[in-house]
Design a protein that fits this description.
The complex is a heterodimer. Chain A is α+β, with helices and mostly antiparallel strands. Chain A is built from two helices and three strands; from the N terminus they run βαβαβ. Chain A has a three-stranded antiparallel β-sheet, with helices on one face. Chain B is an alpha/beta fold. Chain B has a nine-stranded mixed β-sheet, with helices on both faces. Chain B has a two-stranded antiparallel sheet with strand order 5-8. The chains are: A alpha+beta, B alpha/beta. Chains A and B meet through helix 1 of A and loops of B.
Chain lengths: ~80, ~230
Amino acid sequence: MKKFKSEVKITLREGILDVQGKTVENALHSMGIPEIAHVRIGRFVTTEISAETQEQAFEIIDKACRQLIANPIIEDYFIELKEI
Amino acid sequence: MKFGVITFPGSNCDHDAIFATQTCLGEEVVNLWHKDTQIPNDIDCIVIPGGFSYGDYLRCGAIARFSPIMKSVVGFANRGGLVIGICNGFQILTEAQLLPGVLLRNTNMRFVCKDVWLRVENTTTPFSNLIEKNAVLRIPIAHGEGNYFADADTIKRLEDNNQIVFRYSNEQGEITDMANPNGSINNIAGIINEKGNVLGMMPHPERYSDEILGCDDGLIIFKSIANYIHSK
């Protein structure tokens, strides 16, 4: 059995209003940085996975993302996986 | 009839729901624990109360969905049992996919705690059968994530099937942007599933179930449930 580390980035899908991002963007403009636009805020989740192969590890974390870590109705997720 | 009110770690409206159904309505109630794996056979209606189940970790309702009791709730709902999810309960029902869509952060980024007016759009449901069509109820809300969102096809289906039971309105029953406290699409405050036995709503009818609380507009929802069960 091998061990893998996954890093999952979860973001609100494009087109879904990110009110938190919008509020931070407004604050950035208020503090004098008007150059920054389209602020989006997401989550970052790391895990360790025991699996025989990288493909199997990917299937495990992908299932976890689909069913719990992300809500596919409103969120996209991006998985990075490496053996440790 | 008998209600079952579920308590999750972090639920804080479970006792209000018990008060509304037992003391105000005069029906039997059992309190169910999130670790229970079975719903007693004689339960007619499950109440998933408001609160902050599991500290709202990850997303509101996301962890509660995997509580041992939720498997039984899904089975209960699929067999036609009545389920009402209030506030956090609504969020749990969407995460459990018993209801479509999702509750996003309020557009004003604030936790909104105030009375709102609700126009009752569908009075043929088990949860609203004693209410007059287009009646306006005064019910409190208290949430940070109540902004109902679903894709355009889902919203169209909800509208076409008359699955939107409550909409935020003004006191006169007009659906306006001003009356929308959280940015919900089409002012949606409460929806029902296609089969008509699972209701989710962000406002708290149990908090306005006795005049001593300042208003009893919410009681008619529980009365409707009892009426539906008793007349079956």
